[in-house]
Amino acid sequence: MLTKILDTTSERYAVYYVVYGSLAGEDCLVKPYFWAGPYQTLNAAFKKAEELKSSYQDDSFIVMKYLG
């Protein structure tokens, strides 16, 4: 049996890909899509975001608190 354990005492961070305008859909102007993570430290998340920006040549990767 699988058990999910939630740790509410520590914040986690993730990398999101942000789309704007018509790509975000009809109801919103900006929409973030989960891309990588979650990470326990902010530095780890920033490092991954920089890797993604470099490899995809796209500055639309951002770091936010993990929403999941």
What integer is the average pLDDT? 83
Number of strands: 3
Widest sheet: strand order?
A: 2-1-3
Q: Radius of gyration, Cα only, in angstroms?
A: 14 Å
Q: Low-confidence parts lasting 5 or more residues at pLDDT below 50?
A: none
Structural shape: flat
Number of helices: 1
Residue share in β-strands: 25-35%
Q: In whole angstroms, how far apart are the ends?
A: 22 Å
Q: Helix proportion of residues, in percent?
A: 10-25%
Look at the helices and sheets and give the structural class: alpha+beta
Q: Biggest β-sheet: count, sense, barrel?
A: 3 strands, antiparallel
- What oligomeric assembly is this protein in? single chain
**Could you state the order of secondary-structure elements as H and E?**
EEHE
Core attributes:
68 residues; alpha+beta; 22% helix; 34% strand
Topology:
Elements: E1 13-20, E2 30-39, H1 42-56, E3 61-65
Antiparallel strand pairs: 1-2, 1-3
Structure description:
This protein has 68 residues and is α+β, with helices and mostly antiparallel strands. It is built from 1 helix and 3 strands; from the N terminus they run E-E-H-E.
